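Exercise 7b. Backbone tokens:
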């Protein structure tokens, strides 16, 4: 029996070994292909740029922006200093005070806006010259090519009422006449259009005035020669006694007196930016116009007509203003009614909160109105 047991065990071991040998995978030999050189290190070096491409692009853009900002700011400062050196002596001959309370003669309102301020002259309250340069420091403006056509000079003169007659005169290019009339309603209501050739100006310029005889006197041969030579630079020349006030009244019937001003707008070509020749000529022309306006008197046949036309314009403007205010008030009341109904639907707590908010808004508006009135009283005193 022991012999039979050993024989059975040996047969079982043989069967198990045979089964294991039958489960062994069959190996297939593949013929060798072409040799490939290892390129791991070189591939990693090539991928360095792609790994940091966004960072490299950001650093490059930042460097270009900083370079353009510094370069553009220096260019604008150079142009402004040249303008100040050219025009400041001319203004010093005409005005007793040329600086602000901070003792600044050239006021830099921004990196592209510069101001010269003068006061203390006969016939005028003040004169302000704005040099509005292109945003050369702004990379987007440079890329959009908006630099060369954005430089301009604006001269604003505020007259005393006694030194300016009831008179409107405008010199504007024909291509911008409609836009100018849309922006200046009083000119459209009071003045008539004439060709520039009637006053010795180029055919591309239009004269808008309510008194051609006085306009012919103001646009003298000297002024007409300058406007003729630089007609491509003239954007507008405005002489008016109906310029809008600085602050409008809150009451629909409260119309502050209109201002009497001279406003000259010129575009500056690139060749005149640093030389300052055109800027100095514009200042001289403004001084000449001040004297011509102050010595002018409205002819008797135009006086009564001018006063009547201004009364009609003021009455029409007052009625239009009252209608606009009434419509705005109606829209406001409708909005408040809708808000109140919405608060009522939400419940008494929401309604009480809404009423408290309206009470605070009304009180704040009254305080602001009282502060403005007190300031006006102090200014008048």
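Sequence design result:
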């Amino acid at each position: 029996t022991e012999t039979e047991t050993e024989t059975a065990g040996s047969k079982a071991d043989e069967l198990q070994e045979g089964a294991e040998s039958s489960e062994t995978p069959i190996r297939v030999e593949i013929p060798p292909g072409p040799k490939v050189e290892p390129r791991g290190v070189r591939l990693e070096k090539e991928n360095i740029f792609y790994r940091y491409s966004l960072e490299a692009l950001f650093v490059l853009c930042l460097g270009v922006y900083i370079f353009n900002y510094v370069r553009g700011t220096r260019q604008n400062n150079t142009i402004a200093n040249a303008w100040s050196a050219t025009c400041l002596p001319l203004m010093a001959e005409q005005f007793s005070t040329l600086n602000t309370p901070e003792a600044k003669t050239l006021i830099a309102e921004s990196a592209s806006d510069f101001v010269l301020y003068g006061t203390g002259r006969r016939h005028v309250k003040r004169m302000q010259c704005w040099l509005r340069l292109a945003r050369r420091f702004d990379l987007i403006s440079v890329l959009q090519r908006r630099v060369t056509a954005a430089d301009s000079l604006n001269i604003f003169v505020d007259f005393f009422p006694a030194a300016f007659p009831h008179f409107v005169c405008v010199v504007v290019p024909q291509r911008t006449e409609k836009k100018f009339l849309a922006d200046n309603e009083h000119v459209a209501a009071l003045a008539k259009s004439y060709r520039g050739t009637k006053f010795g100006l180029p055919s591309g310029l239009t004269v808008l005035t309510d008194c051609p005889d006085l306009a012919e006197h103001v646009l003298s041969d000297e002024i007409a020669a300058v406007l003729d030579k630089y007609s491509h630079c003239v954007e507008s020349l405005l002489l008016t006694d109906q310029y809008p006030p600085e602050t409008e009244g809150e009451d629909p019937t409260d119309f502050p007196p209109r201002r009497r001003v001279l406003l000259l707008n010129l575009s500056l070509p690139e060749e005149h930016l640093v030389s300052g020749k055109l800027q100095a000529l514009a200042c001289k022309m403004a001084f000449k116009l001040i004297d011509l306006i102050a010595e002018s008197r409205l002819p008797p046949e135009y006086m009564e007509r001018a006063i009547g036309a201004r009364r009609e314009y003021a009455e029409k403007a007052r009625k239009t203003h009252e209608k606009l205010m009434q419509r705005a008030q109606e829209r406001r009341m409708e909005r408040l009614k809708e808000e109140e109904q919405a608060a009522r639907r939400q419940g008494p707590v929401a309604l009480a909160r809404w009423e408290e908010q309206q009470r605070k808004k009304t009180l704040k508006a009254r305080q602001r109105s009282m502060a403005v009135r007190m300031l006006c009283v102090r200014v008048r005193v």
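Instructor comment: The chain has a mean pLDDT of 79. The radius of gyration is 40 Å.
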